[in-house]
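User: Here's a protein and a ligand (zinc ion). What would the complex look like?
Assistant: Let me lay out the input and then the predicted complex.
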Amino acid sequence: MAGGLGTGGLKYAAEIGAEALQVFVSNPRGWAQSASKPEEDALLRESELPVYVHASYLVNFGSPNPETLEKSISSVEHAMERAAAIGALGVVVHTGSAVTQPVEAAMAQIHERLLPLLESLPEDAPGLLLEPMAGQGAMLCATVDQLGPYFEALEHHPLLGVCLDTCHAFAAGHDLTAEKGVADTLDALVETVGEDRLKLIHANDSKDVCGSRKDRHENIGKGHIGERPFAELLGHPAVAGVPFIIETPGRSAEPHKADIDVLKLLRG
Ligand SMILES: [Zn+2]
């Protein structure tokens, strides 16, 4: 996003051949809420690309620490406002961890605090996209069936969606390389949360083996997932029309462009 959220983001997207964009509206590793620049917001709002916002990595609605919970709520409220201003379709949030408290207490807290936030939003607000994690620690949601209690705690609110990260799912034990591995994972997802809830894919290969619970992304086709599962993903009916976002390694345009080129080839 160097050079401005809109200017920099769209320039980079064009450079790497992106057809969708995910942005951070604040420092992803902090709580500070960045101010907006209306002319930069307008560029994204008026662009043809579907845009998504990724909330801060620090957000955790399952935290037993009241300060973390309050900051999480205010951070996601801010991300939601910013997302609406840039015309984003959704805000991606990590499903979080219970840390030291029982899972039931974390889920009750999500019901009490996150549901009112969803209910305060207008009907046409960007979606809140829950992203299951790789499964380290007391993660509330790693495998796709664990989205069930989360959706229940949020009463299947219409603004709820899912962002499926392939590296996280693989690390959590979904063997996407197995025969029917991709189809089984997607079928389980649809069975758990219903149709049309899958709104975004984070397409990342994995540096680690299936079930490792490690969240280390790799470039597409260069890791333990390999290319074939991405082709299967692209061909599955539950994924029709769902944008793919890469969060792969690389500090220059070259590896990201290569990842996008591979995905474009695989979609046929
Ligand atoms: Zn991700």
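Summary: The chain is about 40% helix and 15% strand.
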